[in-house]
Structures are given as C-alpha cells and as structure tokens.
Design brief:
The complex is a heterodimer of chains A (578) and B (248). Chain A has 578 residues and is of the alpha+beta class. Helix content of chain A is 25%, strand content 39%. The termini of chain A are far apart. Chain B has three domains: 92 residues, Serine Threonine Protein Phosphatase 5, Tetratricopeptide repeat; 59 residues; 60 residues, SH3 type barrels. Chain B starts with a helix and ends with a strand. The chains are: A alpha+beta (578), B alpha+beta (248). At the A-B interface, strand 32 and helix 3 of A face helix 1, helix 2, strand 1, helix 4 and helix 6 of B. Strand 32 of chain A pairs antiparallel with strand 1 of chain B.
C-alpha cells in the first residue's frame, strides 16, 4: 500500500517538473568567430523544449559557403526529474575570401509565433599560403604513388619570432584507409600553437600529375622560430592499414614525408622599448579616469592588437614618475590561432596609485615591435597622459602622513659640466721657474740688499759722534754768538763786548743749569776746572772779565775779532766734552 | 720693488684667444641639448690652445656621455691633477672608475684628505708661485722697516713678523715647485684599448703576463720601440704594445 503511494508521488513530481521545463529557447552558436579563409566553421542552431512540429528556417549565411550539413541531432534528457528536449541543426561553413561576415538570424516557428536567434559576426583573415609546392608533391608521388604525405611551411625565410604556418597533408588513392600510428616531427627551436581544424577528414581532392587524390589536412600549426639559423622539421612517419574489409585484413603501409627547412634570421639590435612582439600591431591606451584623489587607483589599459606572436608580448613598462605607484598588470588575452596565424589582442591592465597631489603630464608611452614585412622596428606611440591628482580624503589632523624617507637615488649620473669662464691658461706655461718668477723673487732681495747698504752708510754718518758733536757745537756757538757777530760787523764796540759777555754767561748758565747771577769765576772753576788742566776755566773766566773791562775801559787788550774767535773756540771745546 | 709689482700685475693678466667665449657658449649649449659630440668637438678645439681643470672636466663629461670610458677617465685624471680636491671632478672620476673592469688596488695617496688637496692645489697651478712672490715682497718690506726704524719696541715686533713671512715664502716656493712637478709629471697613463695583453717582453708573441682592460690607471716606467713598460700599483710589471695607453 505504501509502495503505491510512493509511486504516485513520484509521478506527480515528474508531471510538475515536466510542466516547469517548458521554457523554449533558440540559440545559434559557432565554434569560433575568427578564422582564416578555408577554415571550417561549425554553426549549431539549438532549439530546446519546442514541440515536435516546429520548423527551423536557416539563417542567411552572409557570404559564407555551406560545405557540409545540415545535420540534425535531437536529444532528450531527464536530469533530476527535469526533462528537456533539444534539436540541434549543424552546418559546416567556410569563407572563401577574407573580411567580416555576418550570419543572420535564424527563425524557428513555434505554434503561431516565431523565435529568432542573434546574428553572429565572423572575422576571416587571409590564410597563409601553406599548401605543399608542386615539387614536394612530385617527390611525394615518387615515394609512393598511392599514399604520401607532405610537410609544408608558409614561408622559407623568417625572422626570429615571426609566425610561420606548417601544414601536414595526406594524399591518398585508397578508398579505405585506417591510421594506426603517427610520428609527428619534434619541433626543435620552435614554439608552436595548434590550429583547430575541426573534424579531420578527406575534405577535398587534388590532382597531381594526372592522378586524382583525396586530400586530408592532418594538422596545422603556427610556428614561432626561437633562434636564428637553419631550423629543420624532421620528416613525419605515418603507419596506415589500407584496403581493410570484412574479409580482408588489409595491408600495412608506412610512409615518410619530406622534411622542411626554415631559414631564420636574427632580429636587428633591439631598441630599449621593444616589447618582444614580431608582426603587425596596433596600440590603444585607455585611461579610465584622469582626475582622482591622491591614494585612489587609476586604471590604465594598454591594448596591443593585430597579427603577431601576441602570447609572447611582454608587459610594457610604464615610465611613470616615482610618486606614482604602479602594480604588475593583469593580462587579458583575446587571441585566436587559425590558418592565418595568431591574431587578436592582448591587454595589460595596470593599476596605478598616485601618492601626491598635483598636475602630472606623463610623456607618451612608446613601445616598438618588429615588423617582418618591412624588416625593421616600428614604434607605437600613445598620446601624452594628463592626470590631475586632487588632495586625498581625510581630516588633515589625523591623516596618515607618509613616513619621512631618505631621498631615493633612482640612478647615478655624472655631475654636470662647469659653465661660465673656465679660466683657460696656456698649456704647460707655469709661473714657477719662469724668468718672470725668478725676477719677481730676486728683485725684492736685491732691493733689500741695496736698502741695507744705503742704511749702513747713513748709520755710519750718524754713528760718528765726534763729527756730530762738532757740528752741534758749531751750531750752538753760532747761535750764541749771533748778536756779538752782528755787533762786530757793525763795529759797535760796547754792543760787541756786552753781547759777547752776556752770551758767554748765558751759555755757561744754560749748559750747567745755573742762574745767570750764579756765573762767576768760582762756579766756572767748579764746572770746568777738571778740563784741560784748569786752562779752559781760566780762559773762560778771563774772557768774561776781559769783556766786562772792555765795555767800560777806553782800550782793548785784543782785537775784537780775536775775542770772538776765542769765545767760539771756548764754546766748541765745552760742547765737545761728552 | 715697483718693477716686481708691475710684473705680478702683468702675470695676473691672461691673454684670451679671440672667439673663445663664443666657442664656450656653443659647447655649453650643445651639451645642454644632449648633443655631446658637438660639445666635445668645440671643447677639443679650445683644448688645442689653452687648458684648465674646468675645460678638461667638461671634455671628460662629454666622453662619459658618449660612452668612451677610457677617454673620460683620462680627462678626469688630467683635470683632477690641475685642481686636486675638486668635488665635482673627484665625484665623476670615482663614478667612471666604478665602471672599469679591472679592480687594481689604488695606492692611498699621500695626502691629508680633500681639504689638504684643495689647499695644496689652489685655484690654479700658478697660485703658489704667486703667493710666494707676495710673501717674499712682504718679508722684504717688513725686514726693511725693521732695519730702518730705530725705536726698539716696534723693531722687536717687526722682526718675528718678518721671520714668519720668510717661512711662508719658503713653504710657498716649495709648494709651487711641487705643483709644477706634479702637473708636468708624465709617468702615469690610462689603458685605452678595450683589452690589453701585458707581455713579459717588448715584442709581439712573448708571454702574456696579465691582461688589463680599458680605463685602468698604470705607471709608465720606460719606453722602448713604442712599447711601454708599465707597473700596476700592486707591483706587477709588464710591457704593453704601442697605442694601447695614453699618458695622463
């Protein structure tokens, strides 16, 4: 009884979930949106939970060619009691020429209404011409006319890092062929990216020297040579079993391809701003916000797009002033690999945090890549970046000030040249040792010697005390006897003797510090008695007495001239005494 | 005395070659714009006629900027010899030397540091010669005064003063002679070639004793057939081929 109840509940649950699953969706999807000409594109239109009688109208393929399909697949699922049904219609498309194609909207009719899918854009690049050359085919045919394979490269010469497409192709005349073992060549010196070919198979036919073959592209690779020189791809070896049927075990066939060679040229010397890319690039620099507050983040995106070895592009350096903090970038890749090579875009998203307010102009970012078509480096330049950094948030009183740090030495450089007058002087023309120098040193010495000589002479004259005293005594006598001399000349007898006597008394008084009244025979004898055995004193006193007498007496003992000379001689003799 | 004063005056006047200020201006502007080759050409043409520590320093800077390390070192060495103790020259020389491959132990110079160097070097090579002339003149004047004046108090003060100036004269003459000898010294050289095999004998093919690289400073002991016998400060001696070094 209990079991029946449980079964009923289960059925009910199924019904409820079935009712709930009636959401109808119609989608269109492609396995890739970026292809090269000749690459297959798989378009899948999926209609879910639609009634059985719904009709799908195929979309406008927009110039793409349907090479296979449509195939219908239907599925029905019940996951955790949730039932769903879906119908998928698959087309395999191919582009014959490069460009951008749009797959239009597909329409599904459900009951009275219709439902549409979104259109899809497909970018088609030009495929590298990577098919085998006719000589390769000839040689392959010679090896085995029924089954052969080739390795072909899109170029025979390339620069390091330039992309080259390698194609591995199988040509067969057998109707039944099974592969057993692949031996793909080792890629020495290359970095390889596989190209998605979709389902491999004998998709085309070819005629070589009048013989028809079914052709299968086994594999396609984009190769990036990593070093210069002649790089060689060893032949590939394939093992097949052919003509196998129910009754026949078939026949084992082992085939070997040709080997391929690529001459790789080195890149010219790299400029400093080289980012490692070889190919054809465009750059786009997007700054999310030019005006921020200090310590807030700025988003800067540097996007490189084009056809190049994008996966090897290094993060470009941002030449920002040191008061911007830059962090390692986040890398966003939108890279596709197809028969046209590697293309798409690589984006470096930088987080930059300004630490100080102000207006900053960052010089244009420049990065260069190598363009193999032109054979030289090309430079990508952005606009100059302008930033206005406002004062950061926070109460200035409590704001966390950056701790004081030492001045950072970013790089070392030599000190700047000296400017202005450089004080140029003739070479090896030194003052020391020159004639001018010797003269300059000698002249003062000679002058000094001359001066000493002159001074000595003068000193000698000064030093002769006898002569000096005599000269002095002359002067004194002349001065003292001036009045007497004038009276002598005037022939004034009384005046002469008065003056002469007064002069002798005065001189004696002055010479020995006495009053004129004290001058008498006694004091004269006292002062001069020791000289010339008393003769001088006697004569001096005698002459004074003679003068006294001659003033009043009518006669003279000696002529006046003799008296004058005697007086002068006496003064001389006294003066000459030390 | 009047003649020696006149001589001093004449010596302090330096003949400037016509066009020199313009040339200096050209070189300075070219350097400022980063056109180091043009600046170097202008400075070099000036160096043909006259020189100075500043000019040699500027030439060294041009060579440094052009990446010619050994030439830069050569000119810095010449500049520092004309103006010992100059900050900027020493700093650039040290920077250039740091890029030299060979680490040869520089003998510590027999100096009392840069203050002494600056004093010893003076403004130019002739500084001490000029000073000695002045000191001589003052000595003679003081001595003459001392002789002439008979008042004993002044005389007693003048005689030691004259003696001090005589001492200054002697020291200045010594320094002036030392500076000239230093500046005219031709026994130092800088290795110019990127790599030089220093050989045991002055001929090609003889044993390589050691290897030197550009920018290293060596002493030159003798010359023979263009080969130079060199000595490192570490004491190693050997011969270098012609043209591998240049005398400072």
């Amino acid at each position: 009884m209990k079991r029946t109840y449980t079964a009923l509940l289960f059925l009910l649950a199924l019904l409820v979930s079935g009712l709930r699953a009636q959401e109808i969706t119609f989608t269109a999807a492609v396995d890739r949106t970026s292809v090269a000409t000749g690459d297959p594109i798989k378009l899948t239109l999926t209609l879910t939970n639609a009634p059985m009688n719904s009709g799908i109208t195929p979309p406008d393929m927009g110039g793409l060619v349907v090479v296979q399909g449509p195939y219908d697949q239907s599925s029905f699922s019940n996951v955790n009691g949730r039932m769903s049904s879906s119908v998928a219609r698959v087309y395999v498309l191919q582009a014959t020429q490069p460009g951008t194609f749009t797959i239009g909207a597909a329409t599904a009719r459900i009951g009275q209404g219709t439902i549409k899918t979104e259109p899809i854009r497909i970018t088609v690049a030009k495929a590298e011409n990577s098919g085998p050359s006719s000589s390769m085919l000839d040689q392959g045919q010679k090896r085995d006319a029924n089954l052969f394979c080739t390795i072909s490269l899109s170029k025979s010469k390339a620069y390091v890092g330039e992309q080259v497409v390698a194609t591995y192709t199988l040509y067969s005349r057998y109707s039944s062929i099974e592969s057993s073992e692949y031996d793909m060549p080792k890629l020495d010196g290359f970095w390889a990216e596989e190209i998605d070919l979709g389902e491999p198979g004998f998709n085309s036919t070819a005629t070589v020297n009048g013989i028809g073959y079914r052709v299968a592209v086994l594999k396609k690779q984009v190769l990036f040579p990593q070093r210069s020189g002649v790089l060689r791809l060893a032949p590939m070896t394939l093992n097949f079993r052919v003509n196998r049927s129910f009754f026949n075990n078939g026949q084992a066939v082992r085939i070997t391809s040709n080997s391929a060679e690529l001459t790789v040229m080195d890149l010219p010397p790299k400029p400093a701003d080289h980012i490692g890319a070889v190919g054809d690039l465009k750059m786009e620099v997007v700054v999310a916000n030019n005006t921020v507050k200090a310590n807030e983040a700025i988003d800067i995106t540097v996007k490189f797009s084009g056809r190049a070895n994008l996966k090897l592009v290094d993060a470009p350096k941002l030449a920002f002033p040191s008061d911007f903090e830059t962090y390692d970038p986040k890398i966003n890749d939108r890279i596709s690999v197809n028969a046209g090579g590697m293309s798409g875009s690589r984006e470096f998203q930088y987080l930059v945090i300004p630490r100080h307010e102000g207006d900053y102009t960052i010089p244009p970012l420049t990065y260069s890549y190598f363009d193999p078509a032109k054979g030289r480096y090309e430079q990508l330049t952005s606009e100059a970046l302008q930033f206005t950094i406002l004062q950061g948030d926070g109460d200035p009183a409590v704001v966390q000030r950056p701790s004081r740090t030492d001045v950072k030495v970013l790089d070392q450089d030599i000190r700047y040249i000296r400017t202005g007058d450089l004080g140029l002087a003739p070479k090896d023309d030194h003052l020391f040792g020159s004639w001018a120098y010797i003269a300059g040193m000698g002249a003062p010495v000679l002058a000094f010697i001359g001066f000493i000589g002159w001074n000595n002479k003068r000193r000698r004259l000064l030093g002769d005390t006898q002569a000096m005293r005599r000269r002095g005594a002359d002067r004194v006598a002349k001065q003292r006897l001036k009045e007497a001399a004038s009276a002598l000349k005037a022939d004034d007898r009384t005046g002469f003797y008065t003056a002469l006597g007064r002069s002798l008394e005065g001189y004696f008084a002055d010479r020995f510090n006495l009053g004129v009244a004290q001058v008498n025979a006694q004091t004269i004898n006292e002062k001069l008695g020791h000289l010339e055995g008393g003769e001088l004193a006697k004569q001096y006193a005698g002459l004074i007495a003679d003068c006294e007498m001659a003033r009043f007496a009518p006669f003279e003992n000696k002529p006046r001239q003799q008296c004058y000379e005697e007086a002068s001689s006496l003064i001389h003799r006294i003066e000459d005494q030390p | 005395m009047r003649i020696s004063l006149l001589l001093l005056f004449l010596l302090s006047m330096r003949p400037a070659k016509a066009g020199t200020p313009e040339m200096l201006q050209t070189a300075q502007e070219a350097y400022a714009k980063g056109e180091y080759a043009q600046a170097l050409a202008a400075y070099d043409s000036l160096d043909q006629h006259a020189t100075s520590a500043s000019l040699l320093f500027n030439i060294g800077n041009c060579h440094m900027k052009l990446g010619e390390l050994p030439k830069a070192i050569l000119y810095y060495e010449r500049a520092i010899r004309l103006q010992p103790g100059a900050d900027d020259i020493q700093s650039n020389l040290d920077f250039a030397r740091s890029k030299v491959v060979d680490r040869v132990n520089e003998l510590p110079a027999l100096t009392l540091g840069s203050v002494w160097d600056r004093m010893r070097g003076g403004k130019d090579v002739d500084q001490w010669a000029r000073r000695s002339l002045w000191a001589m003149l003052i000595t003679v004047l003081l001595a003459s005064l001392a002789v002439a004046i008979s008042r004993s108090a002044i005389r007693r003060a003048l005689i030691p003063l004259a003696a001090i100036f005589l001492l200054i004269t002697v020291v200045s003459v010594f320094l002036a002679g030392y500076r000239v000898a230093e500046v005219t010294d031709r026994s130092q050289a800088v290795i110019m070639a990127p790599k030089v095999d220093v050989r045991g004998e002055p001929r090609d093919g003889s044993t390589t004793v050691f290897v030197l690289h550009e920018g290293t400073k060596v002493s030159v002991l003798s010359e023979q057939n263009g080969w130079s016998e060199i000595k490192l400060s570490s004491g190693s001696v050997g011969w270098t081929a012609p043209g591998s070094l240049e005398i400072i």
